[in-house]
Amino acid sequence: MVDRAVGLPLAREGLPFVLGVGIPAAVVGLVGWNGAFAVLGALTCFTAWFFRNPYRKTPLGQDVIIAPADGRIVSIEEEFESRYLKEHSRRISIFLNIFDVHINRMPCAGTIADIAYQPGQFLAADRPEATVRNEQNALMIKRLDNRKVLCVQVAGLIARRIVCWASPGDAVMTGERFGLIRFGSRVDMFLPMDSHIQVSKGSAVKGGETILATLPCADHC
């Protein structure tokens, strides 16, 4: 997979939004409308900051599962994942507000076994029912030991556009950027039952950096 955001200060998908407010800001500034310039200038700065793309130092290790997004852990549950994994799993849900970095990163190394997009509603992303009812994009990642991890990008109340740069068959690295969700959103991780969770509900996490869990490797890993 080609990391489309590497080396860029902000995600390229954010450029139309930045220019959309930045150009009017420049125009009103040139004609001397200071009040409008102040408002639009502040909005331009916030939009550029929202789409920021910071460097992250990703922990190494075959058995670590890294947070795919910045945000706050809103739930850790054990449930039967019936749509993709079709097995009992441990779900970790990360809620992103509009102040969090919205670049999404690979939670582990492996191969993208499948990607499934599901249209849906735009409920507040911190509500439990958003897991199955909201617009979402699911990535099935098969690790080198063939163990599977499911990462689901979930749109929220404000977010109306999920971006994913990965494709089925791509080889991916832990911490590699694979997309983003515009404005407030959520990312769900579904892990095997023998995963050792390293975070708790309410924890703040950083995408590509915080260890969510460790997942034992198969013998040949």
Characterise the protein shown here.
With 221 residues, this protein is α+β, with helices and mostly antiparallel strands. Helices cover 17% and strands 34% of the residues. The chain is built from 3 helices and 14 strands. It has an 8-stranded antiparallel β-sheet. A 3-stranded antiparallel β-sheet has the order 1-14-12, with no helix packed on it. A 3-stranded antiparallel β-sheet has the order 4-10-8, with no helix packed on it. A hairpin with a 5-residue loop joins strand 2 (71-81) and strand 3 (87-96). The longest helix is centred in the first third of the chain and has 17 residues, at 34-50. The mean pLDDT is 87.
Topology:
Layout: H1 15-30, H2 34-50, E1 64-66, E2 71-81, E3 87-96, E4 103-105, E5 110-118, H3 130-133, E6 136-142, E7 148-155, E8 162-164, E9 171-172, E10 177-181, E11 185-191, E12 196-197, E13 204-205, E14 211-214
Antiparallel strand pairs: 1-14, 2-3, 2-13, 3-11, 4-10, 5-6, 5-9, 6-7, 7-11, 8-10, 12-14
